[in-house]
Amino acid sequence: EPEVTQTPSHQVTQMGQEVILRCVPISNHLYFYWYRQILGQKVEFLVSFYNNEISEKSEIFDDQFSVERPDGSNFTLKIRSTKLEDSAMYFCASSSAGLYSYEQYFGPGTRLTVT
Amino acid sequence: GEDVEQSLFLSVREGDSSVINCTYTDSSSTYLYWYKQEPGAGLQLLTYIFSNMDMKQDQRLTVLLNKKDKHLSLRIADTQTGDSAIYFCADAPRGTASKLTFGTGTRLQVTL
After folding, report:
1. How many angstroms separate the Cα of A74 from the Cα of each of A30, B22, B24?
2. Which of A33, B44, B102, B104 is 20 to 30 A from B85, comparing alpha carbons?
3. Does A106 touch chain B (CB under 8 A)?
4. Three-class SS of residue A71?
5. Which residue of B has its CA nearest to A48?
6. Chain A closest-CA separation from residue B4 CA (Å)
7. At a CB cut-off of 8 Å and minimum separation 6, what does A97 contact?
8. pLDDT per residue as tens digits for the range A71-84
9. Interchain CB distance below 8 Å, B102 and A103
């Protein structure tokens, strides 16, 4: 069964460093999303992406964040200068176009630890 | 803003039914979802219901929606130890490819 994959599973970085979290969405999906979950808190929406541009973003998704689909399979989230409060589990999700576009399928997550 | 709330913990005996409840505030919600998260794993889409439905059944899972009270529930029949996980309720204000707003998650513990 097709699934969303994410790498790495765990990333440790120092405050101020740049990180890139990578996702491979399900192959025929056209909508892509990033969410995050700070330990003990709710899963929060960050950004959605369609047709090579951002569709929607939350207040959390400020200028230090960016997303990219560098090729036909990968979808990345870049954090330019990490802060301690960026430590969280980051989930990528994807959905197809058309009739089932409301079904969002999530990857296993990348745990980001900023020290 | 939108808010989705759930109770934090539920414990049931194996073989009993589990009922996990959720309330939401956004009256424009078009789809409401249940996701399951097992330890160390991602969010697994379990089921969802369109806002013009009252009930949806899928094998052991029954979703009930009371749109007037903005209340959603997930009933798991014949609960098994493999059902132990965190269950998240989520809503989508616009439905199609829109952001999901998640609840806090309910940890279901199944005891023998």
Report:
1. 12, 34, 34
2. A33
3. yes
4. coil
5. B99
6. 10
7. A29, A30, A31, B97
8. 888 999 999 999 99
9. no
